[in-house]
Amino acid sequence: MIGAIADDFTGATDVAVALRRRGIRTLLYFGLPPQGAEFPEHDAVVIALKTRTARKADAVARSLRALRWLRAHGAAEQVYFKYCSTFDSTPEGNIGPVLDALADALEAAVVPMTPSSPEHGRTQYNGYLFVGDVLLGESHMRHHPLTPMTDSYLPRLLEAQSAYRSGVVTLPHVRGQAVERRLAELREQGVRYAFVDALEEEDLMTAGRALAGAPLVAGAAGLAGGLAAARAAGEGHGAEPAPEPSGPAAVLAGSCSARTLEQVSVMIEAGRPAHRLDALADQDADSLARRALAWYDALDEDSGAPLIYSSLEPGKLRRVQQALGVDRSAAILEAAIGRIARGLVERGVTRLVTAGGETSGAVVSALGVPGGVIGAEAARGVPWIFAPSGPALLLKSGNFGEPDLLLEASR
Asked: How many angstroms separate the CA atoms of 90 and 268, rounded?
């Protein structure tokens, strides 16, 4: 069985659907599965954590608890640590500290990985990460409010947060079927983390075949798909038809990424009712939530699925963070969005679309969703999730989806 640990909730859905696409029967849980949970037949379990921007010690402790649970429940063959395709982290972590702890626990001599996800415009070449046609450090991620990425060379980024050395498996090694040989060379050189170049999906498939026996692998969802394809090898269990959601919908957006800001604008320009949460005007999460729900209650039934958002363009966001502090402003808005999500469900909303990893984590936690079945994809890597009870959830990473995703998913 493959066991996966994701550092945020949207990343967990992304990796779960990557496994499912390849015929790997996959279960997704938000946090550790509850005691007494019944497990359908499966080939992989993904545990979604909210550790990307948590305190380092807490992120490591929660990741190790997830690892112990996975190993106790059958994930003895391979563990996958899922991080963002833009390598979201600060100079302190948490990718490096969590990887160090997992690698030590699994006694993994060398850990292959790549954030490459060509379908989402993320590629790695000579150890450098590209977002579309530009280097990571020159992309919109340079201005990310929580994890600004100003460097593009992955080994340097990871070594700043890790106790171990990093190296590169170059594209000629991948396309020359020499991944395993290069990993052995790096291991002899005392390198523990090996970033695998990949420009196309086929590069990830090649790497997946070479890494099928590695005890610990890490990266974005693309490499997980390569591992799943190698495991299935044409003999995996065919995925059952994906269920589709229905009923009243609402959109909750908290991400300040360029793509989410574009998606918010598309909804507003289409005439959807929209309400912005303003933490500068009101620092009380309960008050923000009450106002938003009162606004929702006053809407006409035929106005279309509404948007409640806190997303801001970089300049306005900086002003909020300077006035309130990064942690406090985020805590106020996440608490408010969690309360709003509960209120919307109480009012009959059966489809909730969320934009942003932290926003999605707040919603899932507020609703007490333990996990669910992966359904149809509204966009590549963005599936509907059906919990045992409660609304269907679409948890969208801030950078994912076409400009009209929020609009179309909430029709």
From this structure: 33
